[in-house]
Structure formats: structure tokens, C-alpha cells
Design brief:
CATH class of the largest domain in chain B: Mainly Alpha
Strand content of chain B: 5-15%
Strand order of the largest sheet of chain B: 2-1-5-3-4
CATH superfamily of the largest domain in chain B: [2Fe-2S]-binding domain
Number of strands of chain A: 12
Distance between the termini of chain A: 59 Å
Structural class of chain A: alpha+beta
Number of helices of chain A: 13
Number of domains of chain B: 2
Order of helices and strands of chain B: EEHEEEHHHH
Low-confidence stretches of chain B: none
Strand order of the largest sheet of chain A: 4-5-8-6-7
Oligomer: heterodimer
Radius of gyration of chain B: 16 Å
CATH architecture of the largest domain in chain B: Orthogonal Bundle
Number of strands of chain B: 5
Structural class of chain B: alpha+beta
Largest sheet of chain B: 5 strands, mixed
Strand content of chain A: 15-25%
Shape of chain B: globular
Number of helices of chain B: 5
Largest interface: A-B, 36 and 38 residues
Helix content of chain A: 25-40%
Low-confidence stretches of chain A: none
Mean pLDDT of chain A: 97
Distance between the termini of chain B: 47 Å
CATH topology of the largest domain in chain B: DNA polymerase, domain 1
Helix content of chain B: 25-40%
Largest sheet of chain A: 5 strands, antiparallel
Mean pLDDT of chain B: 95
Chain lengths: ~325, ~170
């Protein structure tokens, strides 16, 4: 591991000032990904600015949503009674990620900014455009069972590994950023870039910009949101595919729907095309099939992950049927 | 730098690169905490930070300055074993023993999470206040600790017994 300086920040303004004064500074949350990457020499910051003690609260926002401090741990967020009642799909997504030990350390912002677990990215002996632009991508001709089918390029097939972020893009989470020019707020879906020719550029953050909070807008149908993860073992494994979903009916018609996919995209994948094909249509099998087919039309599978097209199709249809059954039950109850 | 380790204030000057795991083992000779994968995958290095279970290998010692750390050496009261330690012996919760300190610290952390009503990925109703937990819940909650001997059935029996539960379900 390369030697580095360490500074424990006492406030976000001061952390940002420090980051502006120092080349190759990195913010440190729980360290569950960054420390590992530093040990593997994939990351080598000259300075760590520890922000894990900042922004540790979850508050109700004026609009009735939740305002989540960037330093809240994954475990605290998943266990929060308001999250469990209003956004259970987010709790489930977080609890499907990593292990209890890691969730106790990992922060919300750190989870959003974790790096891919692509084996070629992690292997400094392999070619990787994400580590070194223009270096080539050994995943293209390699083992791609765990790689993406959506949003890929000839430069990169790596998936974004977060479960939490998949649930959050379905909830239209907004990210509060603070930098040298003050604060700005962006949609979480706008935080991530597709790899294109520069897979090393993963987000729209500027060098010193700090995530200070994630805001969840109020969304009544999110009270019946869910998250389903398919993986190679029952627990503590990254997703082959995951689905965040929620649905609201108006009679037999789909009034509102949110759908996002993990394990198949180069970024947390909001299924905009599928949602457009569901909204305002009759809630039935034909609609569900047409919707997921619309989303997967752009899929570019490789030999080892071609199964993900069928897998995504089946699991999304199954999840939509379950949300439909729940919505009908809810309608009868009220 | 200073930490409270197993109730005692301990001091050391270490490089910022030093993990909590290496601090415990190499500075304080607390070798009960094991180094398995050193990348957060196996759980052999599990310790309690202010009562919560964490991977000591992924934590820099400098990050947890001033905080309270409990290792396997700090669980027993004199000659009296911690109930989880006693349950592991009673229920054959180990074979070679290398993962055991991490398993036991993890189980102690798990008990605290259950007492706080924290749900898991397999909890059917996440909004419920009371978590009815069974063998499936325990296995899910222990998935961050690997055992290459495959002593999992004994481990789950031991943890269930230490929680005062029958692990039949």
C-alpha cells in the first residue's frame, strides 16, 4: 500500500478545503472498499480525508420524504423504522448487500461511490480501461458471467456493484453535493456516467466535490416496494441480476410504476423504457412482457452472460406479477 | 494514537497504513483475532467496535482512534466463558478453530442486532417491530463468516442455543 497522509475532518467545508489544497486526496467513509483497493494498489491516494464522522443523521424532509446524511451506515439506514415502513424495498436492497460486518462500517456515500468488482479491474496484471484508459479490456474476451449487458461499450463491460443504488434510482433519490462553488443537487441517475470511451470517469463529481446527503422524495407507492436479488449463493454475493420494483393501479390500469435493475448494467439501471411501456396500460402479462422486451432490446450480451437476458425477463415479469397481486390486495383492503 | 481494547486504554504509534487487525495482532499481541483473506470476504477478523461487529482487516487503526474494541480475548469474565463461547463447545461449533474467534464475535454482534430489532434480507415483513427468527435468519445473519471445515450446523446450533432458542426450524 502506498503511504498516505490522514486527516479526520470536523466539518464538510473544512474537508472540501483540505481536498482542494492537496493533489490526489480522497474522501474516506467506512473504508470497506477503498482500503481494500489501496491494499491491492489499484488506488493510491496521497491523502485520506476521513468524513465518516460527518452527516450521521436521518431526518424527515419538509416534503415528507427522508434526508439521509452521507455518513449514515448501511446498517443504520436499513434498520431505520421510517425506511422500513415507507421504503421497504430500499431496506431489502441494503440488507441483500455485503455482510453484517461490512454494512456496520460502510456509509451511504461510500456505497454509492464503490468501485466495480470486475475481476480484470481488480487484477493489476490484466488489461483494464477503467484502471488505465486505452489499456484494453480483458473482460471482452474473458469470463463475463458477472458482467453487464446494458450500457456497455467496447471499452468496458463492468457492472456497478451496489444494491442500495438500484433501489435508490427507482425511488428517484437526489444527491446533495458540496464543492468549491457551494451546493448542488442532482438526480442519482445523473451521478453516474456510462463507460463509453472513458470507463475511468465513473461519475460527474468534480475532484473536491463531496456527497453530503441523499434525499428520498415522498412516494406513497414505495410503501409496497420490493427488491429481489438473484446470485450464485444464497447470501453474501454480488448480483447476477437484481430488480427493484413498485406499482400503483388505477382500476385495472397501471397508474404509476418504478423499475430498476442491478447486476446487468454498467450503472444502477433505471428501466425507463419498460416503465414507459407499462404506464397507462392494462396490468396484465402481455403488457409486462412487452415492457421488459422494450428495455432489453438494447442488451448486448456476451457468451457467458447471455442467460441474463432470459433471467431478467423472467424475474421482472415475476416481480411485476407479485406487485400487481399486492396492489390488488391493497385495493380490496381499503 | 489511543484505543480502548477489551476495557483497557492502549496506546501505540503506528503507520497510517496499519489495519486494526495488524494493530491487534502485531502491536498488542492479541492474536486471537485471525487474518484469513485480509479483504473482508471471510470474517475471521471480526471484532466488536463499540459493540458492533466489523471486519478488522478493512478498518484502518487510525480511523477508530479513541473508540472501544472488543476481541475474542475480551469476552470471558476471568475463567468464566462468555455464553456464546460455552455454547460453541457444547454444540461442536468448530473443527480446526481458525474461524472460531470471528464466528463468536460475530454471534455476539448478531445478538445485539436482534435485541435492537434489526431485520435481515430474509425477514419477510421488514416493517414489523418483532423479528421472529429461525435457522434461516441465523444463517443469513452469519453469512459474513466462512468456515472451511464446514462446521456450519454446529455453529448455527451454538448461536441458536446462546440466544435461548431451539434451532429446529
Amino acid at each position: 500500500m502506498r503511504a498516505f497522509d490522514y486527516h479526520q475532518a470536523v466539518g464538510s467545508e473544512q474537508a472540501i478545503e483540505r481536498a482542494m489544497r492537496r493533489e490526489q486526496a480522497r474522501y474516506l467513509g467506512g473504508g470497506t472498499n477503498l482500503v481494500d483497493l489501496m491494499r491491492e494498489t489499484i488506488e493510491g491516494p496521497a491523502m485520506l480525508i476521513d468524513v465518516s464522522n460527518l452527516a450521521r443523521d436521518i431526518e424527515e424532509s419538509e416534503s415528507g420524504g427522508l434526508f439521509i446524511g452521507a455518513g449514515v451506515t448501511n446498517a443504520e439506514l436499513a434498520a431505520d423504522p421510517r425506511v422500513r415502513r415507507q421504503y421497504p424495498g430500499l431496506s431489502r436492497a441494503i440488507l441483500c448487500g455485503a455482510s453484517a460486518q461490512i454494512r456496520n462500517r460502510a456509509t451511504v456515500a461510500g456505497n454509492l461511490l464503490q468501485r466495480t468488482r470486475c475481476a480484470y479491474f481488480y487484477d493489476i496484471g490484466a488489461h483494464c480501461n477503467k484502471r488505465e484508459p486505452g489499456n484494453g479490456c480483458d473482460a471482452q474476451e474473458g469470463f463475463h458471467r458477472y458482467h453487464a449487458i446494458l450500457g456497455t461499450s467496447s471499452s468496458c463491460l463492468a457492472t456497478h456493484p451496489s444494491d442500495m443504488a438500484v433501489a435508490m434510482v427507482a425511488l428517484e433519490a437526489r444527491v446533495h453535493l458540496r464543492g468549491r462553488d457551494g451546493e448542488r443537487v442532482i438526480a442519482l441517475t445523473e451521478l453516474y456516467r456510462e463507460p463509453g470511451e472513458r470507463p475511468d470517469l465513473e461519475t460527474v463529481l468534480t475532484a473536491e466535490e463531496l456527497i453530503v446527503a441523499v434525499e428520498l422524495p415522498p412516494l406513497p407507492m414505495a410503501a409496497s416496494s420490493e427488491y429481489r436479488k438473484v446470485r450464485d449463493r444464497a447470501s453474501y454475493a454480488f448480483a447476477l441480476l437484481s430488480v427493484a420494483s413498485m406499482l400503483e393501479l388505477d382500476g385495472a390500469t397501471i397508474k404509476q410504476v418504478r423499475l430498476a435493475l442491478g447486476g446487468v448494467g454498467t450503472r444502477p439501471w433505471r428501466a425507463w423504457k419498460a416503465e414507459a411501456a407499462l404506464r397507462g396500460r392494462p396490468a396484465n402479462a402481455a403488457t409486462f412482457e412487452a415492457a421488459i422486451d422494450a428495455e432489453l432490446a438494447a442488451a448486448r450480451p456476451q457468451s457467458d452472460n447471455a442467460f441474463k437476458v432470459q433471467l431478467a425477463r423472467r424475474v421482472v415479469i415475476s416481480e411485476l406479477n407479485q406487485r400487481l397481486a399486492q396492489a390488488r390486495q391493497g385495493g380490496e383492503a381499503s | 494514537m489511543q484505543w480502548t481494547i477489551n476495557g483497557q486504554i492502549r496506546q501505540a504509534e503506528v503507520d497510517f497504513r496499519t489495519s486494526l487487525l495488524d494493530l491487534l495482532r502485531e502491536q498488542f499481541q492479541l492474536s486471537g483475532t485471525k487474518k484469513g483473506c485480509n479483504q473482508g470476504a471471510c470474517g475471521a477478523c471480526t471484532v466488536l467496535l463499540d459493540g458492533q461487529r466489523i471486519n478488522a482487516c478493512l478498518t484502518l487503526a487510525v480511523q477508530v482512534q479513541g473508540r472501544s474494541i472488543t476481541t475474542i480475548e475480551g469476552l470471558a469474565s476471568g475463567e468464566a466463558l462468555h455464553p456464546v463461547q460455552a455454547a460453541f463447545i457444547e454444540h461442536d461449533g468448530f473443527q480446526c478453530g481458525y474461524c472460531t474467534p470471528g464466528q463468536i464475535c460475530s454471534a455476539v454482534g448478531l445478538a445485539g442486532e436482534l435485541a435492537r430489532g434489526w431485520p435481515s434480507a430474509v425477514t419477510a415483513d421488514l416493517a414489523a417491530d418483532d423479528i421472529a427468527f429461525d435457522r434461516l435468519e441465523l444463517r443469513e445473519r452469519l453469512s459474513g463468516n466462512l468456515c472451511r471445515c464446514g462446521a456450519y450446523n454446529g455453529i448455527v446450533d451454538a448461536v441458536a442455543a446462546s440466544l435461548g432458542q431451539e434451532a429446529g426450524a
